[in-house]
Design goal:
The chain has one domain (2-366). The chain is 73% helix and 0% strand. The protein is built from 18 helices and no strands.
Length: 373
Amino acid sequence: MTFYLLGYLIIFYIAALRLFALRNDLPLTLALYILIGIVGGIRFETGMDWPQYADYFDSISIEQTPIESYLSNNYKLAFEFGYFILNYFIKLLGGSISFVFLIASLFCALCTYLLSSTFTGNRIFIFTIYVSYNFIYMHFSTVRQSIAAGLFFLGLWAYLKLSNNKLMLLLFALSACFQISSLLYIFIFFCSFLFRNIYRCIFFWTLGTSLLFASIHMGSSLYKLLSSVLPTPFASKLMEYETWDYTLSIRTYLFGLYIAGCALNLGWLAAKKKKHNVDGIVQGKEEFALKIATTSLMLSATLILLFPNNFALWTRVFNVASVLFACALSTFYYSTPKKYKLIFIAHTVVAAISFVASLYAAQEAMVPYKTVW
């Protein structure tokens, strides 16, 4: 545990020094993202996902064509075609599962850096939030999810920086080839255009969730409710999560309330800036960041209410939502950072507590940290 805690303390110390500095720190931030990507990529027999992904890699036959090998693979879990192709060609070229982990970890970290670099504000703050919520889950747990999230971030970058909608859609489609749950990210993206006002977005999310929650407690089947708005395969997949056995605690609900509070925080800051007519804060890509961050946060909170006993589902959304939230919040740095000092400190402290709690919960798979060397 000392390795992880000491590393995080160093990051937290750097963040504390730079938290209210009005500077980009792009070279330093890039170096930190690369470091995190390498730490997550050179692990060996470490992490919650190692056994199943190592076994899957070994189960792939390179004696057949990619299509034949994919169709004949009889591994106990069915992984997406994009992830299979990545494993197939790495194995064909003589690589090992370690190369898959390294590519996935570095790719996710660098795509997050690329997205964060398109926004004004303190990039160290975004990095700290990213590490706090995603270091364990993106770099030591969900390989396919990390690649899918990276492709989604890359798609957002293409949309915001390059204004290239075709490339964005292509990257979104590729993300679904690595993890089907990335369709939730695409859903979030398009939902963010439905509401011009953040508070209106929060209101309709809250209303919809309340009605759904009330319907369930009145005896309606959650599967039937989901099937009425989603294609049957997706509804069935969601219902699989409901049957998974995880320990339920009050902390889950409290964290759900915190996530909803983050969305309200963004709405309050945006309204305050608009009221005082601060230019460049709630316009253009900053406005889009506020909307998509709010939408993703509200969906995360909704999934916690519907599937509180399973963190695997709602963390898939929150891992992305946390980055979008940090990007949106960072847009307020170049106005009056000292005025909102307590807000930024509070979110950073909560993120730090979450990191420590997640680390201790996963310590059996994380300790000791072993590398390929």
